[in-house]
Amino acid sequence: VVEELRAQYQAPVIFIGDGITDVNGARHADKVYARGLLAQVLDQESVPYRLYETFDDILSDLFTVREVVQ
Questions:
Q1: Helix, strand, coil shares of the chain as percentages rounded to 5?
Q2: 13 near 28, Cβ under 8 Å?
Q3: Which residue, 17, 3, 11, 2, is CA-closest to 55?
Q4: How many other β-carbons are positioned within 10 Å of the β-carbon of residue 20?
Q5: 27: helix, strand or coil
Q6: Which residues contact 24 (CB under 8 A, 6 or more apart)?
Q7: Distance between CA 70 and CA 67 in Å, rounded?
Q8: 30: number of CA atoms within 13 Å, CB side?
Q9: Please, is 29 exposed, middle or buried when counting C-beta atoms within 10 Å of its C-beta (0-12, 13-18, 19+)?
Q10: Would you say 2 and 25 are in contact if contact means Cβ atoms under 8 Å apart?
Q11: CA–CA distance, 24 with 53 (Å, rounded to integer)
Q12: Where would a tag sit more exposed on the chain, N or C end, judged by fewer CB atoms within 10 A?
């Protein structure tokens, strides 16, 4: 699904998750926000991600990145 979205929209894919069912999507995304079990699995697999507690953390990070790019 992640690869299909990237191809369809020709844009980077941001993935947010916290469980084992999110692992496959996180492996293929361009930027990952993770917590809980997902973060543990990504640590074991050395997949880069940003740890988050709330969606406010994610919004803050995304707006910071946007300001740097502009």
A1: 60, 15, 25
A2: yes
A3: 17
A4: 12
A5: helix
A6: none
A7: 5
A8: 9
A9: buried
A10: yes
A11: 21
A12: C
State whether the Cα torsion 34-37-41-43 is positive or negative. positive
Spatial CB neighbours of 49, under 8 Å, sequence gap ≥ 6? 26, 32, 33, 34, 38, 39, 42
12-65 tens-digit pLDDT: 889 999 999 999 999 999 999 999 999 999 999 999 999 999 999 999 998 875
| Amino acid identity for residue 30 in this structure | D
d(CA 2, CA 22): 11
| Residues contacting 23, CB < 8 A, separation 6+ | 17, 38, 41, 42
The model carries a pTM of 0.84
